[in-house]
Amino acid sequence: MVALKSPAEDGIDLSSPTHGDDEIRAMQRAIPALFARWGLTDAEAAILLGGISTKTVQRWRDGAFGRVGRDLADRMSNILGIHKALRLIFTDPARGYAWIRKPNTAFGGASALEIMLGGGLEDLLRVRRYLDSARGGW
Q1: Are 79 and 100 in contact (CB under 8 A)?
Q2: pTM of the predicted protein model
């Protein structure tokens, strides 16, 4: 019988984020400003960020950042990808910020925010993929 090695034994670190420290800090600085423009409550922001505490959301707004795991880094990256897609689609930034709360037939009449508040990473990805396809993708 052949013994399988664990990822750690093969030198693979599955816990390391896919984003560098500088990129993570930049995302942490950008997210509170974006959420303010989207008009999110701290509770809504905490859900989009994977269920972090509202205290952590408040600390980020005050510029006090902590460690970020891969799930949170991926969430921030996708949220900023949604923002970027909206900026490319709408020439008026205010329209893009407002779009988040508007009912959308692509989501069965729900808004993008309602979809994202499902709380799963796949909910963020659903909105991002829709916007990427609407703007012509990559």
Answers
A1: no
A2: 0.84
